[in-house]
Amino acid sequence: MLLLDEPTPRLNSRSAMDVLVLLHEVSRARRQVVVLSIHQPSYRMLGYMPTSSSLLLLSRSAVAHFGTLKALEDALARLGHKIPVQLNPLELAMEVTGQLEEDHAKFATHNDRHRHDVDDEEVSLGNGTSPTKATTAA
């Protein structure tokens, strides 16, 4: 795994793209995961991210989004935002991080509750007792 914090600061856009192209090639050639932080990604930079890549958007140390670019676009649409042609989804997301934080927290809480319900069901199915009895017996 290659971790890079701001590999493109103070570079002009052409040099920044050269760095991303090189990282992309290294990642593919070595089948290596590359994790990097970019504070102001351009639309062209997003083209070097595989569609299955996960984005972590932080705001004031809180998660505003974690998932694919498509999931980010869906979250923005769910919040009533249309991505203007002159912006990429990340640029718009950076303008509405507060709303994304609330949305992420709401869905994370929902998913945690669902995950907990599934865990209880697995306990129930796994030992033939009810979740309450399984938890109390432990």
What does it look like?
Residues 114-138 have low confidence and may be disordered. The longest helix has 31 residues, at 97-127. The strands form 2 sheets. The chain has a two-stranded parallel sheet with strand order 1-2. The protein has a two-stranded antiparallel sheet with strand order 3-4. It contains 6 helices and 4 strands. The chain has 138 residues and is α+β, with helices and mostly antiparallel strands. Helix 3 packs across helix 4 (89-95) and helix 5 (97-127) crosses helix 6 (131-137). It has helices spanning 13-30, 43-46, 69-78, 89-95, 97-127, 131-137, and strands at 2-5, 34-37, 55-59, 62-67. It is 56% helix and 14% strand. A hairpin with a 2-residue loop joins strand 3 (55-59) and strand 4 (62-67).
Termini Cα gap: 39 Å
Average pLDDT number: 77
The portion of residues assigned to helices is 55-70%
Number of strands: 4
- Indicate the radius of gyration in whole angstroms: 20 Å
Strand order of the largest sheet: 1-2
SS-derived structural category? alpha+beta
Secondary structure tally, helices: 6
What form results from the Cα inertia axes? globular
Q: Ranges with pLDDT <50 over ≥5 residues?
A: 114-138
Q: Report the biggest beta sheet as strand number plus sense, adding barrel if it closes.
A: 2 strands, parallel
Question: What is the N-to-C succession of helices and strands?
Answer: EHEHEEHHHH
Strand content: 5-15%
